Amino acid sequence: MNAEPFPTGSVSTESLSTEPARAEPVRFDTKIAVLLREDLEPWQRLNVTAFLVSGIGPSVPEVIGEPYEDADGTGYLPMFRQPVLVFQGTKETLTAAHARVLSRALPRAVFTSDLFTTGNDRDNRAAVRAVPTAELDLVGLAVYGPRNAVDKVLKGARMHP
């Protein structure tokens, strides 16, 4: 048995690097995206985004990664395995995106302006249920699906600054 760390002979230690190998960037074939109405206050944007993405994980479990753990062994909750892209647009852009997401039957979550006045989950669901689809006053929409389908849903929206 050879006790040397590298075989002798034709292998040159000059060509060996101590730098870690660079992994190719991961390119997902799916996308998680949030579209916000551009006239929201900063606190509303954060609140709406958090609520919208909370619906995707339980409904699409394959988007959830493994739990985290730090060097001391302290555990943390798992998160999405891929980035969440946040966009903004006009009320009309949001309405058009909503129609497109429905026509493509992609997993989606909605946040209407009425939800700013409710204080619990039961009242939130009742507020959405009380309004016909075409009359929802949308302020946010989350969508998950194949990248190209999500891109088509978001046509006309721009990345959130």
Secondary-structure map:
Elements: E1 30-37, H1 42-54, H2 56-59, E2 68-69, E3 75-76, E4 84-89, H3 91-104, E5 108-112, H4 121-129, E6 138-146, H5 147-153, E7 158-159
Parallel strand pairs: 1-4
Antiparallel strand pairs: 1-6, 2-3, 4-7, 5-6
Helix pairs in contact: 3-5
In short:
With 161 residues, the protein is an alpha+beta fold. The chain has helices at 42-54, 56-59, 91-104, 121-129, 147-153, and strands spanning 30-37, 68-69, 75-76, 84-89, 108-112, 138-146, 158-159.
Q: Can you walk me through this structure?
A:
This protein is an alpha+beta fold and 161 residues long. The chain is built from 5 helices and 7 strands; from the N terminus they run βααβββαβαβαβ. The protein has helices at residues 42-54, 56-59, 91-104, 121-129, 147-153, and strands at 30-37, 68-69, 75-76, 84-89, 108-112, 138-146, 158-159. 20% of the residues are buried. The model is unreliable at 1-17 (pLDDT under 50).
Total DSSP helices: 5
- C-alpha-based Rg, rounded: 23 Å
Largest sheet: 5 strands, mixed
Q: How many E strands?
A: 7
C-alpha end-to-end distance: 61 Å
As laid out across the biggest beta sheet, the strand order is 5-6-1-4-7
Helices and strands: which structural class?
alpha+beta
Question: What is the H/E order?
Answer: EHHEEEHEHEHE
- Could you report the average pLDDT, rounded to the nearest whole number? 88
**What low-confidence regions span 5 or more consecutive residues with pLDDT below 50?**
1-17
Give the proportion of residues in helices: 25-40%
What global shape is seen?
A: globular
Which band does the percent of strand residues land in?
15-25%
